Amino acid sequence: MKTLITDSPLEAAAILNEGKTVAFPTETVYGLGAAIDSPEALAEVFRAKGRPGDNPLIVHIGTPEELPRVASKLSPEAELLVTRFFPGPLTLVLPKSSEVPYAVTAGLDTVGVRCPAHPAAHEFLKCCHSPVAAPSANRSGRPSATSWEAVHNDLDGKIAAILRGNTSRIGLESTIVDCTGPRPLMLRAGAVTLEELQAIVPSITPAGETQKNEAPKSPGLKYPHYAPRARVVTHERGESPAAIPSASAWIGLGTPPVGIALAKLCTTHEEYARELFSFFRHCDQEAIQTIYCELPPEKGLGRAIRDRLNRAAGNH
Ligand code: TXA
Ligand code: MG
Predict the structure, then answer these.
(1) Does the global pTM surpass 0.90?
(2) pLDDT computed for residue 215 by the predictor
(3) Which of 162, 173, 187, 226 to mutate to test the pocket of ligand 1 (most atoms within 8 A of CB)?
(4) CA 280, CA 240: separation in Å to the nearest integer?
(5) What is the share, in percent, of the chain residues with pLDDT greater than 70?
(6) Which among 68, 145, 201, 235 could bridge 150 via Cys, Cβ 3.0 to 4.6 Å?
(7) Is the beta carbon of 135 within 6 A of some atom in ligand 1?
């Protein structure tokens, strides 16, 4: 299949409306979209990514007003979160409406819903006739794509089109909050921080901190994630890895260890989040064998960066 690259949200939406797959920019990472009423395009998304069929897709809407199309009910907590954080980098897990097929939710009666704040994503979604199911636009297991070039590298020839946009402003995937249980659970950390969520809904807890069999975890989180080809090794700030092999890289906020061939020093957590996945991909292009990553403190945006680093390193 020839992959068309376009700068026009209208053209991209027209291709999606024909039942084809289209990658598009959002403020978190690029998504690979299919209309939720197109079984062929949905199957194509799983095929192009090499994604396991039991991993549900997030449904994207252009405006919060479209929520009733995809979710059958909003809890009072969900209402508060929508008012404060939609549009933005937050995904809410809600009871699904009948319009959302089980092919999207991997058989679950719940659906993840997100309304991106990115202007081109908004334009694109507004022109799509149906809500758009979209996982991150990378081959399964690889670092998410934060630029159209990264999408192109992973998926050229496997998808119908790429809506070309800017480099993703945030660089890490959305925060996911499950609002279907007795109390809201943060399933995945992201740019909307736990502290910001709790300022609106104090009862929100991270899923990991609940009893083992109490919480339905995000199905996708059991798979390996965000992994470059190089080995990822994490360290706390101030700890220095002992012997640095040649062809090693480092990313962090402190001081690079001595003997590192390629270092990315970030000055803020925002920069660390924005640069992480593109640095992983750059390291692969440079044939780096080991990437040392400094873990930021587990608060604010640091929580999301730590989570991605630990998953990339296979620490949990
Ligand atoms: O920022 C983002 O969220 C990006 C952009 C494109 O919106 N999307 C994204 O999608 O990261 P993906 O497929 O890479 O990750 C979605 C995660 C998976 O771990 C999946 O298991 C979980 O969301 N998920 C989706 N629907 C769910 C549901 N109904 N219940 C629990 N987890 C769900
Ligand atoms: Mg993903």
Answers:
(1) yes
(2) 44
(3) 173
(4) 20
(5) 96
(6) 145
(7) yes
